[in-house]
Amino acid sequence: MSEQVLRYAAFTDTPHGGNPAGVVLDATGLDASTMQAIAAEVGYSETAFLTPAGDDGRTFNVRYFAPSIEVPFCGHATIATAVVLGERLGEGRFMFHTQSGDVPVEVKSNDHGLHATLTSVEPNMVDLDAADLRALLEILRWNENELDSTLPPKVAFAGIWSPVLAARTRARLADLEYDFDALRTLMTKRGWTTIQLVWRETPTIFHVRDPFAAGGVVEDPATGAAAASLGHYLRAVGAIDPPVTLTLHQGVDMGRPSLLIVHVDDVDRRIRVGGHAVAILEAT
Predict the structure, then answer these.
(1) H/E element holding 279?
(2) Nearest 5°: CA angle at 260, between 258 and 266?
(3) What is the arithmetic mean of pLDDT over 207-230?
(4) Which of 110, 139, 145, 161 is 20 to 30 Å from the Cα of 82, by its Cα?
(5) Domain 6-120+276-281 CATH assignment equals 3.20.20.100
(6) Are strands 92-98 and 101-110 parallel, antiparallel or unpaired?
(7) What superfamily would CATH give domain 124-274?
(8) N-to-C CA span, the chain
């Protein structure tokens, strides 16, 4: 692999947690097939590819590739990329032009290192078709009576589309074993990038898991785009009282604990998602 690929774990302050992402800081001259091949070789759920945009040195076109597909937006790779840029260019604001829209990211330092907060594109939400719900439950091997009746199934968007299913118990969420090929087929057909499975511990603390079969990955240990979708979903169904900050725990059942902080406003519809990122390996 001739291009320099940085490897960072996002939504964690330790290399052993969070979701690994590849970052290519200068993808000038790389075509889509080459970027796809690099992402497949890296093997992480996403690798971000940047090209400069504008003259300020802090604005970039960004494309995101999973091992098997290109996705329009990826939250954890955005956080990882912003921290990489913050280390090299200093704290402050960066602008990412993505296929889903413009995503500003603010990078600041705290006691645990550099922390990045992205602001999502305009969110949206639609009903989950009853037939799709039945198919999804069958694939996941869940029963309808295992769902939290206070959090109705929906499909939410904040850069990518994600069905949101809420489990009634933490044990149900912990026991995740599904038909990979069937889920991949359904997700591809419906245009869903990930599946946001959640359990509500308190009004503002959630445990989440995200199958990513559409991208060729069984599960993501941290999913920033789906976290933004969840923030909008909770506001839209009246489950929270904005302005509010939510804490999402993800990756625990995978042995890669992640912490995602989600800010939901009562004025600005866009959702902010923040977390740390740290280097795993310097480069290859």
Answers:
(1) strand 272-281
(2) 165
(3) 97
(4) 161
(5) no
(6) antiparallel
(7) Diaminopimelate Epimerase; Chain A, domain 1 (3.10.310.10)
(8) 7
